[in-house]
């Protein structure tokens, strides 16, 4: 028997119905379909238009579908971690609210805040609970209602993001499948270039913070782009090198979807051809913590037991990293 690893044993995604197309954005800000598509790879994104609904509703829908697919009773969940940059409230944790919505009454739960790397960091965290042998069923949710912090009069940012959620179930595996290795990184200096300034303890909400638009995302696009290209490509190549994996060994790269050009550069650095790269940026934009599970969800039927996946992300913080995962089910 091999050591206990944490394997993904089920996956589900959820996106709201409304499609915000590049064409519609042309009527909102000074932009055009050709610029957005060529500079980012995005054609449309989904938006949760119901103002009474929040990230927990997106997350709860993703988990409900996951439980149904797996025929799992919510009472069996030991732990639920929600990765989100747009929590319903600063506290309590959105994970707690999701547990309430799905009836996971035996689970403990909390959020992880690591911007666009949150799902990756949460996968790593959840895996440790499984590897310890103490917990058997851990749900990791990535959920973001990015439209709630978007300035739809700023063309440099509002074209990039969309709303969505995805969830995975982690269970113990003793047959050599699951989470194999990881490289995770943080650089707090990145805070200067990508942040939401208002609403926290430094700048609590005032008329001034609202007037200054501090409750929206602020991003210095070009600077973040340079860090993201280097960060994501570096760790993706490094994790392959560290584990003696060649491009032929990799079934799929599962990259965070911030900009198609960042993904292209990462794949190139790894020597992996684009037919092995999961992409959903064209139809969902950057769903922050939703991008990776939404990709896995869409590719689930193509995945085979034993497939080597490199999952990599870069986000605000700065935070970035890569996980090598051996897929645990499928043909
Ligand atoms: C935001 C981003 C798409 C901008 O692309 P870019 O190629 O860097 O574009 P620039 O910011 O240099 O702007 C180039 C020009 O396009 C203009 N522009 C910006 N947004 C535009 C839009 N939506 N439509 C048309 N023109 C636009 C700029 O005003 C600028 O015009 P100028 O040359 O007259 O000054 C890109 O920088 C990016 O993806 N950054 C990283 C995002 C990211 O990874 N985030 C990670 C966290 S998830």
What ranges have pLDDT less than 50 throughout 5 or more consecutive residues?
none
Number of E strands: 13
Sheet with most strands: 5 strands, mixed
The largest sheet has its strands arranged as 1-7-6-4-5
In this entry the ligands are:
coenzyme A
Number of helices: 10
- Overall residue-averaged pLDDT value: 98
Assign an overall shape.
globular
Order of helices and strands: EEHHEHEHEHEEEEHEHEHHHEE
**Backbone CA Rg:** 19 Å
SS-derived structural category: alpha/beta
Brief summary:
The chain has 331 residues and is α/β, with parallel strands linked by helices. The protein contains 10 helices and 13 strands.
Please give a structural write-up.
With 331 residues, the protein is α/β, with parallel strands linked by helices. Helices cover 31% and strands 25% of the residues. The chain has ten helices and 13 strands. The protein has helices spanning 22-26, 33-40, 55-70, 94-102, 118-131, 207-211, 221-242, 260-270, 281-284, 291-299; strands spanning 5-14, 18-21, 44-47, 79-83, 108-112, 138-145, 163-173, 178-186, 194-195, 218-219, 250-255, 308-315, 319-326. The strands form four sheets. Strands 1-7-6-4-5 form a five-stranded mixed beta sheet, with helices on both faces. Helix 3 packs across helix 4 and helix 7 (221-242) packs parallel to helix 8 (260-270). The radius of gyration is 19 Å and the shape is globular. The model has no long low-confidence stretch (mean pLDDT 98). Residues 31, 35-36, 39-40, 116, 155-156, 159, 194, 221-222, 224-225, 228, 258-259, 262, 286, 314-316 line the site of coenzyme A. Coenzyme A (COA) binds at residues 31, 35-36, 39-40, 116, 155-156, 159, 194, 221-222, 224-225, 228, 258-259, 262, 286, 314-316.
């Amino acid at each position: 028997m091999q050591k206990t690893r944490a394997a993904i044993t089920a996956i589900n995604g959820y996106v709201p119905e409304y499609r915000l197309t590049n064409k519609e954005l042309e009527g909102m800000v000074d932009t055009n379909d050709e610029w957005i598509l060529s500079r980012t790879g995005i054609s449309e994104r989904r938006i949760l238009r119901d103002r009474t609904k929040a990230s927990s509703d997106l997350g709860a829908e993703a988990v409900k579908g996951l439980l149904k697919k797996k025929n799992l009773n919510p009472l069996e969940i030991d732990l639920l971690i929600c990765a989100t940059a747009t929590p319903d409230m600063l506290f309590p944790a959105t994970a707690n609210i999701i547990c309430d919505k799905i009836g996971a009454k035996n689970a403990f739960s909390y959020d992880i805040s690591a911007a666009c790397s949150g799902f990756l960091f949460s996968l790593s965290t959840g895996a440790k609970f499984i590897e310890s042998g103490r917990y058997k069923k851990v749900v990791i949710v990535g959920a973001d209602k990015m439209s709630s912090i978007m300035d739809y009069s700023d063309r440099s940012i509002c074209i990039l993001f969309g709303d969505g959620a995805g969830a995975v179930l982690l269970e113990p595996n003793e047959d050599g499948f699951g989470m194999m290795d990881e490289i995770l990184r943080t650089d707090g200096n990145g805070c200067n270039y990508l942040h939401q300034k208002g609403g926290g303890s430094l700048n609590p909400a005032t008329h001034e913070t609202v007037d200054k638009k501090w409750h929206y995302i602020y991003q210095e696009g070009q600077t973040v782009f340079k860090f993201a290209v280097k960060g994501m490509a570096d760790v993706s190549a490094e994790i392959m090198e560290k584990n003696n994996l060649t491009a032929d060994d990799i079934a799929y790269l599962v990259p965070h979807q911030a900009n198609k050009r960042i993904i292209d550069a990462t794949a190139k650095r790894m020597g992996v051809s684009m037919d092995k790269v999961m992409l959903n940026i064209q139809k969902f934009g950057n769903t922050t913590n939703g991008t990776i599970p939404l990709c896995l969800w869409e590719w689930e039927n193509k995945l085979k037991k034993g497939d080597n996946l490199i999952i990599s992300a870069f986000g605000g913080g700065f935070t970035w990293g890569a996980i090598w995962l051996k897929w645990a089910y499928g043909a």
